[in-house]
Amino acid sequence: MTHVARELASQPDCWRRAAGMAGGLAGQLPASGERIAVVGCGTSYFMAQAYAALREGSGQGETDAFAASEFPAGRRYDRIVALSRSGTTTEVLGLLAQAKGTRRTVIIGDPDSPMATMADDTVVLDFADERSVVQTRFATSALTLLRAQLGLHTDAVVEDAQVALAEPLPTGLVECTQFTFLGRGWSVGLANEGALKMREAALSWSEAYPAMEYRHGPISISTRSTATWMLGDAPAGLSDEVHATGARWVAGGLDPLAELVRVQRLALAIAQARGLDPDRPRHLTRSVILSTA
Ligand code: F1P
Q: Whose CA is nearest to atom 7 of ligand 1?
């Protein structure tokens, strides 16, 4: 069994643990009403997008998400929250160093990483750290912690993750030549992450959009050999329009975070079918550490 397959399967347990921490971290995580920015790179950035939409959408304060490299230097926030499994990603370290006057909270997997000592609040999810390069459980556990702190996590989410791990994947998906993942609100970040997983682990041509954007161009890619996968509830009429292209439509019936687990499984199934080792993703390293930033 690969590291990524084992880590992927441990997500229900990790989510339970992460959610259980939320009550004890009230002083370290953003309070309701704070104006915050959430940052990260790669997978961590997509989790930041999901959290930002959940927090602002539930009326708990203005929340912007940025790739760490694109943080607008002139903006003022009550707090910057950085997500980083490794705690070593160059762009995140650079931003935290520059933002000394702002309260900085980091959520990291490795307690011995440089990020652990440079923030005002350090939250360590070491139980969710991973051996694999391709992230699964750290990212979803960090989001579960933040979701629980917003009061938006329930046991039903963990039950859905168990269903996502147990049920067979829809037939015919492994053979598809292209995948489009769609989301709405907080699941836009999850759609972005699903597409990234497919690229990283399976070298699959995958795209992601807010669901209402699909008709504005991306639909032209859809045809009999492609699949369009909705994370969360679909806009009215969209499934019919996808069916009319001949593409496969995958309706996300589970909680969107559990639906992402199904996408992770698909990425591994495609990697296996193509003879790829998902623990050795092409051109990737566990963390991007730049000598010239
Ligand atoms: C972020 C990240 C991963 C990506 C790759 C390089 O790392 O961009 O999402 O899959 O392995 O690093 P981190 O800041 O969360 O450690």
A: 287
- Does 43 contact ligand 1 (Cβ within 6 A)? yes
The residue whose C-alpha atom lies closest to atom 14 belonging to ligand 1 is 84
| Ligand 1 centroid to residue 171 C-alpha, Å | 31
pLDDT at 26: 87
CATH architecture for residues 3-153? 3-Layer(aba) Sandwich (3.40)
Q: Where are the alpha helices (H) located in the chain, listed in sequence order?
A: 3-9, 11-21, 43-57, 90-98, 137-149, 155-166, 187-202, 238-245, 256-273
Q: Which long-range contacts (CB under 8 A, 24 or more apart) does 238-241 make?
A: 238/182, 238/211, 238/214, 241/215
Is the CB–ligand 1 distance for residue 136 below 6 Å?
Answer: no
Helix 256-273 vs helix 137-149: crossing angle, to nearest 10: 180
List pLDDT tens digits, range 232-289.
Answer: 999 999 999 999 999 999 999 999 999 999 999 999 999 999 999 999 999 999 999 9
Fold agreement between 3-153 and 156-273? yes
Q: Is 41 in the pocket of ligand 1 (CB under 6 A)?
A: yes
Q: Is ligand 1 within 6 A of the CB of residue 192?
A: no
> Which is the closest atom of ligand 1 to the Cα of 43?
9
**Nearest protein Cα to ligand 1, atom 10:** 134
Q: Where are the domains of the chain?
A: 3-153, 156-273
Q: Which CATH architecture has domain 156-273?
A: 3-Layer(aba) Sandwich (3.40)
pLDDT in tens, 136-185: 999 999 999 999 999 999 999 999 999 999 999 999 999 999 999 999 99
Type of residue at 235: P
At residue 293 the predicted structure's pLDDT band, cuts being 50, 70 and 90, is low
